[in-house]
Amino acid sequence: MPAMTLPPQPWPTGKCEQLEPLVRRVLAANGSTFTYTGTQTYLVGTDDELVVIDPGPADGDHIQALLGAIGEGQVLAIACTHTHRDHSPAAAPLAEATGAPIIGCAALAIESDAPRVDAPFDKLYAPDLVLADGERICATGWTLTAIATPGHTSNHLCYALDVEGSDEESGALFTGDHVMGWSTSVVVPPDGDMADYMASLMKLYEREDRIYYPAHGPAVENPRQLVRGMFGHRKQRERQIIRLLEEEARPIAALVPVMYKGVDEKLWPAASQSVHAHLIELERRGEVARSGESWSPIAGR
Predict the structure, then answer these.
(1) pTM exceeding 0.85
(2) Alpha-carbon distance 182 to 212, whole Å?
(3) Pairwise CA distance, residues 204 & 147, whole Å
(4) CA 46 – CA 257 distance, rounded (Å)
(5) Which CATH superfamily is domain 16-233 in?
(6) CATH for 236-297, among 2.60.120.260, 3.30.530.20, 1.10.10.10, 3.10.180.10?
(7) 187: helix, strand or coil
(8) What torsion do the CA atoms of 235, 238, 243, 244 make, to the nearest 10 degrees?
(9) What's the sign of the alpha-carbon dihedral 235, 241, 244, 249?
(10) What span, in angstroms and rounded, lies between the C-alpha atoms of 20 and 90?
(11) Per-residue pLDDT tens for 87-102?
């Protein structure tokens, strides 16, 4: 959940920034408590061949900024990490404007009566090709490999950049909302799954990526250290839940104020969703049980 103070404005909204030889970034004007300064769309590749990662919201100014950055280049594919509405809606108009296929994560739209603290799903997202874990988008001299990372959403993908014959430009991972340097991801049941999220964190920890480019917030230059810390933080929250329930049975609404004391109350709805995801996983493992709205530990577990 959000943890870092937003940087002072102005933000580089609509500007094309060169991050490294094969990576450029354009920031959408949708900054908020849950998107930091906004969704970062990445243009990966050369002036001749490129892939657009996370085209962002269907905002006309953002789409025009992307088309300006693309120029006369050939867009090989438009790839989304997942289908929250701050990530994928611009895919369709960008595909229409460039003729590029939409390739990447699967379509997903969850209906739920629960109040949502994350962006709702993009119901209109329609990929031309869904990539499975390990499948690639290939260009001249470089590739993007899909890395399945469910947890934040069940259809979440990261994309790993590999450049032929060059270690210097390889090792970049585009992490969407799975790992961000400014915040931990919100895991919202029923689609968000804490066990999947933790497994996906370990999957990335076992890799040797040089740098992470998330959809929100600054680049992560110490990937394995950050992922290790995020994994430990989630385990710490799990232990905290068990400890509080051992004191007395509690509903989620009573856990959150204790667990997130000192955190802005506006963020408590997001915290309650992640606490719920932890409780569902603990219930699966036979460590807690629910009775109505209250949760309690299982004796002799």
Answers:
(1) yes
(2) 12
(3) 9
(4) 49
(5) Ribonuclease Z/Hydroxyacylglutathione hydrolase-like (3.60.15.10)
(6) 1.10.10.10
(7) coil
(8) 140
(9) negative
(10) 24
(11) 999 999 999 999 999 9
